[in-house]
Each structure stands twice: as C-alpha cells, then as structure tokens.
Amino acid sequence: MSSPTLLRPPDWTRQAACQGISGRDLDPWHPPEHLTAAEQATQHALARLVCARCPVRHPCALEALQAGIGHGVWGGLTVADRRRIARRHGYPQPGAAQHGTRARYIAGCTDGPDGKACRPCLEAHRRWVAEQRARTAARKAAVIPPPALVLVLGHGRRRAYPGQYVLFTDGLPAHALLRPADTGGRTVAA
Description:
Elements: H1 37-52, H2 57-67, H3 79-89, H4 102-107, H5 119-141, E1 148-149, E2 153-155, E3 158-160, E4 165-166, H6 174-177
Antiparallel strand pairs: 1-4, 2-3
C-alpha cells in the first residue's frame, strides 16, 4: 500500500525572489479588488520588478500557464499577459474551468467527439447528478411528523393554547404528550 501524497508547493518556490515579501499590508502579486485600475497597475509594476530578478521566473510563469491560474502576477505575467500567451500557444485560458469538472461541462466543453463534452467533463457531471439525486432521495425519505391541532394542552412549563399547532418530537408518540391530567380536567382534541 502506498503512502498518501502530501500537497506541497514545487521545489522551485523555495528559491523565489518573492519569498517573504508579501504580507498583510503589501501583496503586489494579488492586489485587492477595491483598488482603482491605476493603483492595481502600480502594484503589478512592483511585482514585475521583483519577478524580473527572480531566478525561478520561468518555472513560475509556466506553472501559472499550465494550471490556467486566473488571478495575480506569476513569473512577471499578469492575467492579461497569460491570456494572450495561452491563446497563442495552446495553454488553458486563465480562470477557465479545467477539464474533468462540472464547471467545464456547464461552461460548454466541446472537446469530445462530434463537438460534445469530453469524457472527463461528462463523468464529473454524471457524478454531480448522482449526488443530487441521492440528496433529494434522503430528504424525501426523512419522516416529518404532521402537526397536531390542539384545543388546550399543558405540558411542563410550556403550554399550547387553542388553535395552535404543536410539532411532536421524533420518537415520542402523540398520545404521550396529550395526557388529560396535564389539562386540568379539560377536554383535549388531537
């Protein structure tokens, strides 16, 4: 039996020039959305300066291109740069759903035979449909006791008054809660 694979960043990331630069207040590789376009461009320019002297710039850019990462600056390339390169050289579009996911199936995967969805995307969609059907069947199978309309009911500290609906808890039969002794001798209708 093989041991489980641990998810860790590639080895080249230890040599990256950006190691330790990003912080809570400064992350030019992923500027916040609330900044204006000019402020984001300034942040990206700062990130590109750091990337320009990075010894692992090419593996970083290649990682982003191959994975279709749709955010941030990787290897000195912004999302727009990576889109242009992806179109020209056949990489997945940044931010596009990857093959083998339901998101790609919904987005209109046409890489299969006859321009239909490819097998991995189709299988992902079938798994999702099966899960949805199982959840729906489980919800329908859950038994919810019907409410009982009572005229007068006293039970413990809480009392139900005429015309109220009382929901009985699971496992307790209705007759266990409707005891004439609790009503002070008045009649109870269930």
